[in-house]
Write a structure and sequence with these properties.
Strand content: 25-35%
Number of domains: 2
Mean pLDDT: 92
Order of helices and strands: EEEEEEEEEEEEEHHH
Structural class: alpha+beta
Length: 212
């Protein structure tokens, strides 16, 4: 498994959502409510198929080298006076988070959807995350999906089952949110997800779990 040769830099988002690195601070993570410096052995390249999220109303926290003390980044170092946001990675399926992203919430911060917000940094022209591959099953690997085929097969099933609320809902999961389990359902292989949660703060449009 590949690890960085030194601790990656902090990444943050400017007020327009552009993700940038700040080499003066190193990436940090959270552990039991504390800001911590990740071990290089716990960092892997951002897996293919992962996503990067900005965290609104949350300020990024980095590590001051060489003391390993946490420090809050309050303003954009490239444009003093402008706001910044914390950044986290949502790793591809089959991976497990070791350290969540390090940030400090502003007062009355908006609720975040229920995702696994992984600590992420930048080094040697790539992103690094605090996690590891925990499932060797390749059924949801990014390189197993061809979007053109997914669109074609999803369209056929949606047209065939127009009155089936579950199939229609999974169509949104597949085409809008690119859920790999929903994609596999429409490809007719391996799995068929069944949304059942009665309470969630993800605010998905058209959620079939949101019943009157």
């Amino acid at each position: 498994m590949t690890h960085p040769d030194k601790l990656p830099a902090l990444v943050f988002a400017d007020e327009d959502g552009n993700i940038r690195d700040f080499p003066d601070l190193k990436m940090a993570g959270m552990l039991n409510g504390r800001y911590v410096q990740p071990d290089r052995e716990d960092l892997i390249p951002l897996p293919e198929g992962s996503e990067l999220f900005t965290l609104p109303d949350r300020l990024p926290v980095g590590i001051v080298p060489p003391r390993s003390d946490p420090q809050l980044l309050k303003k954009d170092p490239r444009s003093p006076g402008t706001k910044v946001q914390a950044v986290a990675a949502f790793m591809a399926p089959a991976h497990t988070v070791l350290l969540p992203a390090a940030y400090q919430s502003r007062k009355n911060a908006v609720l975040l959807p229920l995702f696994a917000y992984t600590a992420v940094g930048w080094h040697d022209d790539q992103f690094w995350v605090a996690g590891f591959r925990s499932d060797s099953d390749p059924r949801q690997d990014f390189n197993r999906f061809k979007q053109k085929t997914i669109i074609q097969k999803t369209g056929k099933l949606l047209a065939r089952y127009k009155q089936n609320r579950l199939v229609q809902h999974l169509g949104t999961c597949c085409l809008t949110y690119h859920c790999p389990a929903a994609r596999n359902f429409f490809l007719g292989r391996w799995e068929a997800p069944l949304p059942t949660s009665s309470v969630c703060n993800a605010r998905c449009v058209g959620c079939i779990s949101l019943q009157p």
